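Re: that backbone. Tokens:
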């Protein structure tokens, strides 16, 4: 594994959420989008940086069974996307905010499934223990950041969805298939660091 220059990473990010041009998935233009936020958690391990993901449970209404960042819909009493991302992360995997240092934001990500997602990029410092909510999360796992940022690992795929052919990227890693909005946000970071 390898380490990333955190100062370079911070400099590549937006200082405020929802600034700049959003990233649009094919099919996101013709619908009302619900505001959401996710935490893009980069874990500082002794042998290199990793990214912490969740695998959603199979019975959920939205994105069932998919690999995702912890996060969810903005609630009425959430004062900011950072608050939403941290609250959802605590609820889903039990990661306390005392372990999380927010570094900045990626451009808003507009999904074809009806969400306007603010990705909150953060550094996570161990030691920490996770307490996974078994209703929402089947598993939490980490993938080396260097693997995710290597364009050679970004595989192009397509599928038919709502009567149209959609193209997307995926980053298969072992038994995990990282795709959709999650892979789109990883590509967004990759492009900003390039």
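Recovered sequence:
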């Amino acid at each position: 594994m390898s380490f990333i220059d955190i100062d370079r990473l911070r400099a590549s990010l937006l200082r405020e959420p929802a600034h700049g041009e959003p990233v649009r998935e094919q099919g996101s233009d013709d619908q009302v989008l619900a505001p959401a936020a996710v935490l893009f958690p980069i874990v500082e391990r002794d042998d290199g940086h990793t990214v912490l993901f969740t695998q959603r449970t199979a019975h959920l209404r939205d994105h069932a069974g998919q690999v995702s960042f912890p996060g969810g819909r903005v609630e009425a009493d959430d004062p900011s996307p950072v608050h939403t991302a941290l609250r959802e992360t605590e609820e889903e995997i039990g990661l306390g905010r005392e372990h999380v240092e927010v570094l900045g934001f990626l451009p808003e990500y507009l999904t074809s499934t009806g969400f306007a997602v603010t990705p909150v990029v953060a550094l996570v410092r161990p030691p920490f223990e996770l307490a996974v909510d078994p209703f929402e999360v089947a598993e939490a796992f980490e993938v080396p950041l260097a693997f995710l940022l290597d364009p050679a690992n970004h595989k192009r795929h397509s599928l038919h969805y709502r009567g149209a052919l959609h193209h997307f990227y995926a980053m298969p890693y072992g038994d995990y298939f990282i795709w959709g909005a999650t892979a789109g946000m990883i590509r967004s970071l990759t492009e900003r660091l390039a």
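The chain has four helices and twelve strands. Residues 180-193 form the longest helix (14 residues).
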